[in-house]
Amino acid sequence: MATRAPPSPVSPESYAVIEPRHDRESFTISDLSAEFDVTARALRFYEDEGLIAPERRGTQRIYSHRDRARLAWILRGKRVGFSLGEIREMIDLYDLGDGRRAQRQVVIERSQARIALLTAQKRDIDLAIDELTSFVALLEASRAQDTPQG
């Protein structure tokens, strides 16, 4: 399987609603593995976790458009740091039948909370980098002042 670079974090394809595939009624594990650049093992794991539910025809898994859309949600959620439990909760809200209002509201709230957390972590990382940079500069300056004992 060819490895592709993940979409840029700022590219619209990273966040756009997944486009339906009208050219297909169903998908195989190979189809989805190739399209989303995930392993068959990952797909089986998501199935075991109850996040997707392919139909079985003998030993073959047949994935629906719903499974494909759920997989896109899973991967997007993982990419931005949501747990599988959080992803499951947000995906399952789609089935409430309220025109996705509840799902949208929860996703907005969770995303805003995640942005706040990531912003705080980024600030902490920036402070740690600044502190380490200053410390290294201090050590390098003291090393430069050392004279060999003779």
Describe the structure concisely:
This protein has 150 residues and is mainly α.
What is the name of the CATH topology? Multidrug-efflux Transporter Regulator, Chain: A, Domain 2
At the first level of CATH, the class is Mainly Alpha
Helix content: 55-70%
Number of domains: 1
The CA-CA distance between the termini, in Å, is: 62 Å
- Which structural category fits the helices and strands? mainly alpha
Number of strand segments? 2
Give the strand order of the largest sheet, numbering strands 1, 2, ... along the chain: 1-2
Tell me the strand percentage band.
under 5%
* Low-pLDDT sequence parts: 1-5, 7-16
Number of helices: 5
Please compute the radius of gyration using only Cα atoms.
23 Å
For the record, the CATH architecture stands as Orthogonal Bundle
**Helix-strand topology string:** HHEEHHH
Shape: elongated
Q: What is the overall pLDDT average?
A: 87
Largest sheet: 2 strands, antiparallel
